[in-house]
Amino acid sequence: MRLLRRSDTGEFSLTQFPDEAIPPYAILSHTWGADGEEVTFKDLTNGTGKDKLGYVKIRFCGEQAALDDLEYFWIDTCCINKANNAELSQAISFMFRWYRNAARCYVYLSDVSTTSFTSNRREKLAKPWESDFRKSRWFTRGWTLQELLAPSFVEFFSQEGKQLGDKRSLIQEIHEITVIPESALRGTPLSQFSVNERLSWIQHRQTKLEEDRAYSLLGIFGVYIAPIYGEGMTTAFRRLQEEIGKLEQCIKDLHLTNPQDDKKRVEDTKGGLLKDSYRWILGNADFQRWRDDQQSRLLWVKGDPGKGKTMLLCGVIEELKKSTPGLLSFFFCQATDSRINSATAVLRGLLYSLVTQQPSLVSHLRNKYDQAGPSVFKDANAWVALSDIFTNMIRDPDLKMACLVVDALDECVSDLPKLLDLVICTSTLSARMHIEQKLRGVDARARLSLELKENAEQVSRAVNVYIEDKLSSLDLLQDDGLRDQVKNILRRKANGMFLWVALVVQELKGPESWDPLQVVEEAPPGLHQLYDRIIEQIKQLKQRNSEICRLLLSTACVAYRPLYLAEIGSLCGLLGQISVLTRNVRMFATMCSSFLAVRDDQVYLIHQSAKDYLSDKTRDTIFPSQGRMHYNIFSRSLKLMSNALKHNMYDLNAPGFPIDKVEVPVDNPLATIRYLYVHWADHLYTQDKDVIKVFIQNKYLYWLEALSLCRSMSKGILAIVKLNALA
């Protein structure tokens, strides 16, 4: 990047900087004057151009930058050698990035004056320049659109060099002039706005060269096309939209889960985020040091199950959104969901979040994606490719700062050592080390450990706030004296454990809990003991209800992802139409609500500790063994698929019907077996080769059809590989 510098004598000189060594700089946004009025690169290198009208803008920018303690500044008229086509092409591709990375952007409005005047009533106007501001030519030019949106700090100046305000103080006026949403002006990632909406922002703007209307949008969409002047505006926009389509497809193929949606699901499942239950960490010395000290790059939050680590991180994420100057990316691991319990899934989630916030980073994805297609995210070498992409993205000089949050590392059941090595940026530790050993091996200057045991008093106070909030919503405890008694017992027994409180409150909400004092007095302290009591309560249900509840729990425990109500119902042998099946399973899930939660018709185990507890209990006579459960699911899967799979299940018009045009029938014949045709092979046992052979002989093509209809062919290929290894 070539930057201007103003000397003590008022002279200007140009300096070239490599990308990794660009100093802080100011940048000018303006409208060009007539040909011959602007100072060019050639003028500056030859020491000419001081008599041109455009020299006023150079002098203004240099003086204003000096007032803001910035030694360097950039102006498009003279910092680009437009006689060099290669340099001009590169500058067009970098323009958005240069404006985004500027410490300050000065908008020089040559048609707005701050000369005061009065209205007809002789009353002084608050903003005498506002009428001219709203009519300024700057708001009608194509290139100034990205110059408005890209920088975080934009200041507006009159022709006299007087400050009028900045993008935030003038946001209402700018919104009314441009019709650009205020959220976009405040810095919401532009990728959050639809393609058509972003295209509409250029609709009433003009450029000197017609192709520039398309080229000026490159940074706004995070894509690049080589400028071909003379191709015409129609062709330029066609190429732009083709590139946007490729970008959208790449991000769509990268998408595995939206961490924002996962965060909302976690918060909803746990009853919402309560600020008073996490704000203690904001005053914690270790947290503040990690947040403020650039040398403390890694913060490790450690605590026993049920201590509220996940909700604590949800709160930290909310606070970081307000204060982090760079990008914030996060991911929630969940051992019970095969989509989000692997190191590859973590990287895909983090990368997805990064590129949706800063689309220019997608170039690191496209380098590999354009060669290999979506398989680069899914095949056997996915970790190698993704870790390479991730490393390059983090090292990108345009990524000034990134804060990455990963919850529940211990629930990453696949390739955790690789993920840890990537996190700590070292390969010197044994891959067999435990999480704690690995993270303790990081340089103490870069790693901080925030252990909840060492902050027991703050956690206890946070739990007390949580108890107060939960009890306040119970109709059963409207009497202040009774509520205080219940509250005091919960505080005494909770031992700093949010999950324990949540489970007892869940019981208090039950129809049989007419005596809240008895409920809390009988509730045993300790999570494991409380789980024991809940199991005993399930055993006391009517025999058939108890059997189905235990079957639901054991099925949820071994499933590779959260099951839909109809799916888990069919696996448990419940009969009926989908609506009836869904209703019945929801009823049984309510009987197990201390272990199971239903959200968006999917059944989730409430916590990893619940899965761990139930997995241990399967060794007892209360539940079938895990081996038996896997066999039952495998056997039931083959039976259900054999009955459901057939030719042309969606009644498509002809072979080769485009998958993008397939509409799912209202009475979807695959609704109850979606999980089965993807995961049945994961539950298989080698002694069932004959049964597998019969199924493959009779239903193989129909199984492939089902996988194709539900866009799960890549997962089917993994199943085929597993079956082939068994043969």
TrEMBL record:
Any coiled-coil regions, as ranges: none
PROSITE patterns named among the record's database cross-references: NACHT
Keyword DNA repair carried by entry: no
One Pfam family it belongs to: NPHP3_N
Ranges where the NACHT domain occurs: 297-415
Keyword entries, A-Z: Repeat
Record flagged with keyword Repeat: yes
Full protein name: HET-domain-containing protein
Annotated source species: Amniculicola lignicola CBS 123094
Lineage, opening ranks: Eukaryota, Fungi, Dikarya, Ascomycota, Pezizomycotina
